[in-house]
């Protein structure tokens, strides 16, 4: 391509005109006019008001816009850390509603169900048929008390039920039975750590206190149809929920999302609430308020007006909605306005919360103790019995994995969360079988080398994940078995750990087992029959290879010499690996282990090649 | 009877703070039965004498305010151990024609806007004529006067009385709340529902966590076997149909905005 003349270049940059000379489509029609146009523009300096002047170049326009924004002070700064806004303190309180895992509903003997045929499990009381009375189903206490214990609450021996009145078609009786005045559990605590995903500004640990946990009823499921018609399914009316209310002690959006995630994990671990946010079994409402950082210094100073955000359906929505609402409130307060206490909503993908109802639409719930229901009296031995049967909680399990097996925090967390907790059961099964094979069961001292456990964890997480696109395709059962039987994986890992096969061969074997080409229990047989044993080259053979490879690599050798002589600071690892790669290609790959090749090469460099170079 | 207790008190060197005075001497009167409610402090008075003179009356409290109000409040405050009766909601027709337009002395009044708000909350029709509004307001004011008079009783509500250390909780229902009654109502591992549910649990995994065993056949008797959709005004397959939009559909609009929008808006679902 020929060089563009400076005249044309300057015309383009300064006036934005391109000469059409040579353009095919404009050759005959507008060539002359555009040339004349350009000439005219060059003679007269362009002013914005001249109608005949060509358009300002787009890049220049953008630059002018930005400059104008900057001077006016409205320039949107890219907030790299959107967890804190300097000069302001955010306060968030969260209310979580979780559906309890019970067989019957809370006040009627109808069965709970999920995605069942509509209006099939409905009792007379659920539809508020006149004359029907509530009948407290005591088995609902089991998951409720376990949930409260998992959150560290004190269980009150006597609690009472209250009515919360409001009219809606999904509440047939006109009131919801809840525990407003005397909840059954109070004063709990949830501890959050950086591994749970809290904001870095919160440091190493955050303790969020739970103010109360109370039992309440769920409402019906409404499906909106066209033409403002709604279809109601009353299967869900009366299903027991617990409402978990935290104290307003959260100060960063990421911590709020981490809290909801942690509560879901804890509830699932004690079998209190097994459907998560995505399935609709757990819902969160957040209360957001801001105040200036200076006001926050004195303890007991009042918090700002709070707004409530409802209808949050995922953890990310929790974080995003809090950030959007905080920014909105700060903008209002900085402009000198007042934040109104209202209820707002959030939908995925929005940038700002939207108003659902204001103060004038606020409902007066007229809480009153329910006269049909007696007090809820929970015996001490029930609480003790449930506390003893809760098992090891997730926090403890992660700490055990990290301390006993030397896993990293990230790996431990992944193991626990994958496949609804089944993956970690699989890991335990594999580990047990592996230890049996390696005869390590007897010398299990905590300080002993746990490399085999780390190997097992790596393979359970990463190699298993490489087999299928979706982790559900692995067919992991809750007991910890999948399409790769744990005994077979243990066999492969035992051979790998003892360096009887290479990693590449091990991966091939894994594929074979997954595709059922190798029958269960036949791993060793398969290695034998296919001749896959790793017969490593001896040291002398490695040395021979190294000698062969180093021929003609004087330039590379000089790099090492320079490091040895102190002229460069870093060891030329890249060059070393280049040499190792050359060795692998030159030799028989199935019989070579890259790490031992590297070791040999490094040793020979030190002992043989560099001295030879220096001598020459 | 009182003497042994007093000697016991003196014998203990650490000063005991007794919450109530020593029990009364046994009265031969057949009406002096021991009340089971713990909220009634036993007094030295004779129950007959106490109950012979009424200290307040409903009609008195419903009378117009100002001079009578102070009198009624002083008379009601004299009975510090007033029995904790439920304040009966008043719908006495004869008091309705006491059409007071007088403003409450010093307390906030009920305006027609308040009345309209309350009626909307209860999904009741708004009053048609001005006279109806006036009579409803009068009834409401009278009821409020009564409630406030009850709340002025020392110990009735913890916020109003600063001197009394023990406040009387409002009675929600009359139940057996003695120690024995509470023990009977207690839910323990032996309660039938809990016992069955605990028996159906299994221990899962290395961490020995509890799991409810599912898959048991649902109770056919519980909740099934009656025509659920029989009372539906409008049906669509197995769903109840409700029409919203427009005001006045059973208070749907006012409460539709009042309902916390916890549900997701539209879920496509096949019937």
From TrEMBL, chain A:
Q: Where is the Asn/Gln amidotransferase domain?
A: 439-605
Q: Where in the cell is it found?
A: Mitochondrion
Q: What is the catalytic activity of this protein?
A: L-glutamyl-tRNA(Gln) + L-glutamine + ATP + H2O = L-glutaminyl-tRNA(Gln) + L-glutamate + ADP + phosphate + H(+)
Q: Which UniProt keywords apply?
A: ATP-binding, Ligase, Mitochondrion, Nucleotide-binding, Protein biosynthesis
Q: List, alphabetically, the Pfam families matched.
A: GatB_N, GatB_Yqey
The record's listing under PANTHER family reads: GLUTAMYL-TRNA GLN AMIDOTRANSFERASE SUBUNIT B MITOCHONDRIAL AND PROKARYOTIC PET112-RELATED, GLUTAMYL-TRNA(GLN) AMIDOTRANSFERASE SUBUNIT B, MITOCHONDRIAL
Question: What family classification does the UniProt entry report for this protein?
Answer: Belongs to the GatB/GatE family. GatB subfamily.
Free-text function comment from the UniProt entry: Allows the formation of correctly charged Gln-tRNA(Gln) through the transamidation of misacylated Glu-tRNA(Gln) in the mitochondria. The reaction takes place in the presence of glutamine and ATP through an activated gamma-phospho-Glu-tRNA(Gln).
- What is this protein's record name? Glutamyl-tRNA(Gln) amidotransferase subunit B, mitochondrial
UniProtKB/TrEMBL annotation, chain B:
- The Pro residues compositionally biased stretches are 18-29
Composition skew (Low complexity), residue ranges: 68-90
Question: Where is region (Disordered) located?
Answer: 1-114, 206-225, 242-271
Q: Ranges for the Glutamyl-tRNA amidotransferase complex subunit Gta3 domain?
A: 108-153
Bilayer-spanning residue ranges: none
Q: Which Pfam families match?
A: Gta3
Where are the compositionally biased (Gly residues) regions? 245-259
Where is this chain compositionally biased, Basic and acidic residues type? 260-271
UniProt superkingdom? Eukaryota
- UniProt-listed InterPro entries: Gta3_dom
- Report what the protein is called: Glutamyl-tRNA amidotransferase complex subunit Gta3 domain-containing protein
Organism, as annotated: Remersonia thermophila
């Amino acid at each position: 391509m020929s060089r563009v003349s400076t005249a044309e270049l300057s015309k383009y940059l300064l006036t934005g005109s391109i000469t059409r000379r040579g353009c095919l489509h404009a050759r005959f029609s507008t060539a002359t006019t555009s040339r004349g146009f350009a000439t005219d523009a060059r003679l007269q300096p362009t002013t914005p008001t001249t109608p005949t002047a060509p358009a300002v170049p787009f890049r220049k326009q953008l630059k002018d816009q930005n400059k104008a924004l900057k001077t006016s002070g409205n320039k949107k700064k890219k907030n790299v850390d959107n967890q804190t806004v300097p000069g302001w303190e955010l306060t968030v309180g969260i209310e979580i509603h979780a559906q309890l895992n019970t067989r019957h509903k809370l006040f009627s003997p109808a069965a709970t169900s999920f995605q069942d045929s509509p209006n099939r499990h409905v009792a007379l009381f659920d539809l508020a048929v006149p004359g029907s009375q509530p009948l407290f189903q005591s088995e609902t206490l089991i998951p409720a008390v376990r949930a409260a214990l998992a959150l560290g609450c004190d269980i009150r021996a006597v609690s009472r039920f209250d009515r919360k009145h409001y009219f809606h078609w999904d509440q047939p009786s006109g009131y919801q039975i809840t525990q407003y005045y005397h909840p059954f559990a109070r004063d709990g605590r949830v501890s959050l750590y950086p591994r749970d995903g809290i904001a870095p500004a919160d440091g190493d640990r955050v303790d969020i206190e739970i103010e109360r946990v109370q039992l309440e009823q769920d409402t019906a499921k409404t499906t909106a149809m066209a033409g403002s018609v709604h279809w109601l399914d009353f299967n869900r009316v009366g299903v027991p929920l617990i409402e978990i209310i935290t104290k307003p002690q959260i100060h960063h959006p990421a911590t709020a999302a981490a809290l909801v995630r942690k509560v879901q994990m804890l509830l699932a671990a004690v079998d209190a609430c097994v459907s998560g946010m995505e399935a609709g079994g757990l819902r969160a409402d957040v209360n957001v308020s801001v105040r200036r950082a200076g006001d926050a210094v004195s303890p007991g100073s009042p918090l700002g007006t709070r707004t409530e955000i409802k209808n949050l359906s995922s953890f990310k929505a929790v974080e995003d909605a809090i950030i959007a609402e905080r920014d909105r409130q700060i903008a209002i307060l900085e402009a000198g306005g007042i934040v109104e206490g209202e209820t707002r909503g959030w939908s995925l993908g929005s940038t700002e919360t939207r108003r659902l109802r204001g103060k004038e639409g606020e409902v007066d719930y007229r809480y009153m103790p329910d006269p049909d229901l007696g007090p809820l009296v929970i015996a001490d031995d029930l609480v003790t019995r449930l506390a003893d049967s809760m098992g090891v909680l997730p926090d403890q399990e992660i700490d055990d994995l990290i301390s006993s097996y030397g896993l990293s925090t990230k790996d431990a967390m992944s193991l626990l969360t994958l496949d609804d907790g089944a993956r970690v059961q699989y890991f335990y099964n594999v580990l047990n079988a592996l230890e049996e094979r390696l005869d390590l069961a007897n010398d299990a001292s905590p300080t002993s080398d746990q490399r085999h456990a780390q190997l097992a964890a790596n393979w359970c997480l990463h190699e298993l994940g490489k087999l299928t696109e979706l982790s559900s395709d692995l067919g992991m059962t809750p007991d910890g078995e999948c399409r790769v039987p744990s005994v077979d994986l243990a066999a492969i890992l035992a051979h790998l750990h003892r360096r009887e096969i290479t990693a590449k061969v091990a991966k091939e074997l894994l594929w074979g087992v997954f595709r059922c080409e190798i029958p269960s229990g036949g791993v060793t047989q398969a290695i034998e029959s296919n001749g896959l044993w790793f017969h490593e080259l001896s040291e002398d053979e490695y040395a021979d290879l190294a000698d062969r490879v180093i021929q003609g690599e004087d330039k590379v050798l000089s790099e090492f010499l320079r490091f040895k002589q102190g002229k460069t600071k870093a060891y030329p690892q890249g060059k070393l690996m280049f040499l190792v790669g050359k060795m692998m290609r030159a030799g028989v790959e199935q019989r070579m282990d890259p790490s031992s090749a590297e070791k040999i090469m490094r040793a020979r460099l030190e002992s043989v090649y560099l001295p030879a170079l220096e001598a020459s | 009877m009182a003497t042994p207790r007093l000697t016991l008190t003196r014998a203990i060197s650490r000063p005991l703070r007794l919450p109530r005075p020593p029990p009364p001497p046994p009265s031969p009167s057949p009406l002096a039965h021991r009340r089971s409610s713990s909220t009634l402090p036993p007094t030295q008075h004779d129950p007959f004498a106490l109950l012979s003179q009424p200290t307040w009356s409903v009609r008195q409290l419903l009378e117009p305010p100002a001079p009578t109000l102070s009198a009624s409040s002083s008379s009601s405050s004299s009975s510090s151990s007033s029995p904790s009766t439920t304040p009966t909601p008043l719908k006495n027709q004869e008091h309705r024609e006491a059409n007071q337009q007088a403003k409450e002395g010093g307390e906030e009044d009920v305006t027609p806007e308040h009345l309209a708000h309350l009626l909307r909350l209860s999904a009741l029709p708004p009053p048609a004529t001005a006279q109806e509004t006036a009579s409803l307001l009068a009834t409401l004011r009278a009821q409020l006067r009564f409630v406030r008079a009850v709340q002025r009783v020392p110990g009735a509500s913890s916020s109003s009385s600063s001197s009394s250390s023990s406040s009387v909780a409002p009675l929600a229902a009359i139940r057996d709340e003695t120690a024995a009654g509470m023990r009977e109502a207690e839910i323990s591992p032996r309660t039938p529902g809990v016992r069955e549910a605990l028996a159906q649990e299994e221990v899962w995994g290395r961490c020995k966590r509890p799991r409810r065993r599912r898959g048991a056949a649902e109770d056919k008797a519980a909740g099934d076997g009656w025509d659920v959709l029989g009372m539906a005004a409008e049906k669509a397959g197995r769903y109840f149909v409700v029409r919203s939009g427009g005001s006045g559909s059973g208070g749907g609009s006012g409460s539709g905005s009042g309902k916390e929008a916890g549900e997701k808006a539209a879920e496509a679902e096949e019937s």
